[in-house]
Amino acid sequence: MGDKKFLLVVYDITNDRRRTRVHNALLDFGTPVQYSVFECWVDEQEEMRLKRIVRRLTKPRADSVRYYRLCASCVANIEVLGPPDVTGEPPPALVVG
Prior knowledge:
about 100 residues, alpha+beta, four-stranded antiparallel β-sheet
C-alpha cells in the first residue's frame, strides 16, 4: 500500500439528496470540516475509489467537485480559526492475527 496523501475535497451539489449521499460516502474517507468540505488522508487506491464513488453520485453538468492535493509542508502551513483542527494523518495500522 502506498503512502497516504492529504486530499481536500470541496463540493457544491445542487440537489439535497445527492449532496447528502456524497457527504455520507466521503465519511468513509475523511473528516468533514464544513458540510461541503472534507479533509482526507488517502493512498492512491483509496483516492481512485473515492473519485469513482463521487463521480457515480454526482451530475457533472449540475454539480461541482474539486480535489486539492496538498504536500506535507502545505498541510503544516494550514491555519485554522475556530474548530475543528486540521485532520491529522491516521496512525499506521497494526494487524494482529
